[in-house]
Amino acid sequence: MQQGDTQDGKSPSELIDARIEELGDWRGETLARLRALIRQAAPEAVETWKWRGVPVWEDAGMICTGETYKAVVKLTFARGAALPDPKKLFNSSLEGNTRRAIDFKEGDKIDADALKALVREAVALNKSRTKR
């Protein structure tokens, strides 16, 4: 799913497609793989495009962002500090009270099952807060 037109009449999903293509390297491949796993875990999630070019996935609130840097693709979970992480996926932004992130470097293997479980936990946490 996607939300609203944002830039040059393109939807957020189209802008994410363009980002993946423009990267044209392992970062684009990694972002595409992460996106596919997020979509599998949270099929109702809406793709948005914020802060001048950051892909964001939302379902009853923000799930995570997908930022790309020179050396990493970073998935930042908006409320990651409140999520169970039995597989110890979080490896970045560990000092904060709210967010947690996973930095993926070139060649890193993605634990698809653990990542999907983390996404589902994030959605469940968001939905539990909206019921109050």
TrEMBL record:
The YdhG-like domain, residue ranges: 27-123
Protein name, UniProt field: DUF1801 domain-containing protein
Species this chain originates from: Mesorhizobium humile
